[in-house]
Amino acid sequence: MKKKLLAKLFVFGALTATILGCCFNACDSKDKTSSRLFPRNATLKSGDGPLVQAHRGGLREYDDNAAGGFKWCLERGVRGFEVDIRLTKDGHLIVMHDSTVDRTTDGTGKAEDLTLEQYRNLRLNACSETVPTAEDIFNVFKGRDDFFIELEMKAYPGKFYTDEVLEEYCRKLNAAAKASLPDGTYAFTCFNTKTLATMRKVSSDAPLGLIIAGPLKEKHIAIAKQLNCCSVAANVYSSEKAMVERAHNEGLSVCLFMAQTKSDWEVAKEKRADRVTSDVPVLLTQAIAGKKKKLIAIDLDATLSQHRTKPPEENLNALKKLEKKYKCIMVGAGNAQRIYKQMGNYPIDIVANYGMQIAEASDGNFRIVKAVTNDVDRGFFTKECDYLRKKYGYTQYTGKSIEFHASGMVTFGLLGTSAQAEQKVSFDPDRKKRRAMYPEVLKIFKDYSCYIGGSTSFDFAGIEYNKYDATLKWANEHGFSLDEIVFIGDDFADGGGDSHVRIKGMDHIVITDYRAFPYAIKVLLD
User: Fold this and answer.
1) Domain boundaries, the chain
2) Top-level CATH class of 378-406+410-462?
């Protein structure tokens, strides 16, 4: 069965090349760098080895396919990128990896069932940005020609992508890339050979790249040649150096994935890969350049542990490994005693209450060394929170409407201070209710740091109390600089407890599942 399928692919590719007049002599041209078919920037380097490409714009350092993520990486020295492009129901080029929007946004539905207007009403989970169009991504690179980006075509033949729609998609994507990106800075890539053949039908000089799910084999190189591709991409560990060299001999550049650590990158370098793809491109690029991180600041709930529970043993073991290489501190919204207790009396220094409380415990002896208390205008908070309750329909609540903490923090619980746990959990799990209120909350309490806290509340602190400023202040007092810090957290969306870290610009790792903590920090342990 596989042999028959392969034979059909060879015939299809050969026929496609013949019909389009795609002479394979173009592949053997000595002047490949001047041809659109063979992008000159496909062999840019990171250090003295393969170019690091930001997978979906650096999904573990910002968000999954967010325009801000591409900008974030570009500003920090990353020069390689990868992005996933689909077609909306009404024919616009949209950036989305999955076949549905459920995992990465606050919406639901199949990616191709939504119109552009519907996409514009969605927000990406980790950064609160709108889902970008292809044009939004291209605009990040406006005026530059010092990068390379793989435009992965997520258009697979099927019910939505009929032959006609697939051709329409390829025409639009080819035209958009030609209009916005300099020749030599991009290639259209795909796992599906029919999609690649359709792009070749649309454009005889479109730079194409074949992606393989497993190791690079001779048959893949042959298919890539049949389709007149400029590159192939395959698994970094299962692909053999001999096959990479074979691809090079056939005029193909080679990308190997995934490279999450410097060791992965060095494996790809030894195999003579031209590019690697990484979820942590900024930290990997810095490691390759020899830039050392020294301080790791870690959030607790949903980062190192499940909410209000002790971290699992494997996460504590990962933390201990980090402590062998770096100074580590906990940075949280809760008070220091609660964090210390939840950690099982783990010996680590704590920056609590967004910086209003500092505790030392790294020597095994817990003690509070700083505790700020601030007076707040209770009348102002009472008046404005009553207004918000009436406007948004939260006039029924249990217990007190507002909780004033000794530190000066204020908690505005929409269900009140004494709501049942079951009510809290089911009230606003995706935070949509509070996100709808957040712009007005932010406007009213403009002189405060405003957070979408817990499961039902908004939390307020003095404007200077946030995890970015709290971490940086602790760092400066202990001899660390901004570029030596990595923050690890889970809640970087607007209103999230970690949001200031993203907004103000501190290197960070995004945790989407606390159980993945040991994997997410591999780049720091290498």
Assistant:
1) 33-287, 295-372+465-525, 378-406+410-462
2) alpha beta
Cα distance between residue 201 and residue 20, in whole Å: 6
Find out whether 508 and 61 touch, Cβ atoms under 8 Å: yes
pLDDT surpassing 60 at residue 17: no
Within 8 A by CB and 6+ apart from 231, the residues are 42, 187, 189, 207, 208, 209, 210, 224, 252, 253, 254, 255, 274
Structure tokens at 246: 């074979």
Mean pLDDT of the chain: 93
CATH code, residues 33-287: 3.20.20.190
Q: pLDDT band at 123, cuts 50/70/90?
A: very high
Nearest to 189, CA basis, from 252, 137, 138, 147 = 252
Reading the block at residue 111, the tokens are 């990616």
Query: Phi and psi dihedrals of 391, rounded to 5?
Result: -65, -40
Measured between alpha carbons, how far is 248 from 227 in angstroms, rounded to an integer? 16
The torsion angle over the Cα atoms of residues 241, 246, 248 and 253, rounded to 10 degrees, is: -70
Single pTM value for the model: 0.92
pLDDT in tens, 398-455: 999 999 988 889 999 999 999 998 899 899 988 889 999 999 999 999 999 999 987 8
Task: Kindly state the tokens that stand for 28.
Answer: 């053997």
Domain 295-372+465-525's class?
A: alpha beta
